[in-house]
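ok so for the tutorial part 2 we go from a plain amino acid sequence to predicted structure tokens. step 1 is just haveing the sequence, like this:
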Amino acid sequence: MTIEERIRKELEACGMWSNGLETVMQETKDMHSDNMARRWAEDESEYPKPMIAVLLFSALSNALDWVKKNCLKRSIVPYWRRP
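step 2 — the prediction. this is what the tokens look like for a chain of 83 residues:
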């Protein structure tokens, strides 16, 4: 499994849908473009696990921003409040 496939798999496991997954992955790739440009297609076993965790944290942060921007509309806010 490549590094990119691993990050995608983890995002999907957290409930990220395909419509936002592509955007989040592109944002994550853009954030790490200097260091990771050639590494996204490498096998994840060749990359240190702590660095995979950093990439995953970055992707999850981007995913949370995407969800806040696109899914939490004003119309559903009352349902998130305590009675």
